[in-house]
Amino acid sequence: MRLPFFVYGTLRPGERYHDEFLRGRTRCEEPGLLPGALLYDGPGYPYAVEQHGGTVTGEIVTALPEAYRELLDALDRLEEYVPGDPRSLYERVDREVTASDGRVVRAWVYLAAPAVAARLRAHGRRIEGGDWLARP
Fold first, then answer.
1. CATH of domain 5-129
2. Amino acid 79: pLDDT
3. Would you list the DSSP string of the chain?
4. Could you tell me how far CA 136 lies from the centroid of its own chain?
5. Using CA atoms in the order 80, 7, 131, 32, what is the torsion angle rounded to 10 degrees?
6. What are the φ/ψ torsions at residue 125 (nearest 5 degrees)?
7. Model's pTM, two decimal places?
């Protein structure tokens, strides 16, 4: 599936990896929200963890068709996601996200892998408000 990506941390505009990974590879980047998730602080980057009642702020990124496969592979490497590998920090899953105009879009989202999510729920530092850019 060629879904857009929902990014919520270091890939957002003005953040560390935005230009390196997204510049020149996207057709559109627009504000969006991921319902049903909370945001936790990681070692220099955030983790979204599924949980009812929470919302994570980010951007919906639509790749240029000719750059899609390259971008997907690059983001999988950045997020240390390997399908089926229990050592992965994140899982890439498709979820419904809401664009700023109210449209609901299916997008790839990198969520904390199950073991990481369990650790964060038990001992993690939550980013109140769900916005990486507004963290203290």
1. 3.10.490.10
2. 95
3. ----EEE-STTSTTSTTHHHHHTTTEEEEEEEEEEEEEEEE-SSSEEEEEEEEEEEEEEEEEEPGGGHHHHHHHHHHHTT--TT-TT-SEEEEEEEEEETTS-EEEEEEEEEPHHHHHHHHHH--B-GGG-GGG--
4. 20
5. -160
6. -100, 110
7. 0.95
The Cα–Cα gap between 86 and 76 comes to 14
* Integer Cα distance of 45 and 129 in angstroms: 16
Residue 136, pLDDT above cutoff 90: no
Residue 106 has pLDDT above 90, yes or no: yes
What tens digit of pLDDT does each residue of 15-27 get?
Answer: 999 999 999 999 9
Task: For the chain, give every domain's residue range.
Answer: 5-129
For 63-101, give one letter per residue: b (16+ CB within 10 A) or e: beeeebeebbebbbebbebeeeeeebbbbbeebebbbee
CA distance 42 to 94: 22
Euclidean distance between CA atoms 41 and 131, whole angstroms: 11
- Say how many residues make up the chain: 136
CB 40 within 8 A of CB 49: yes
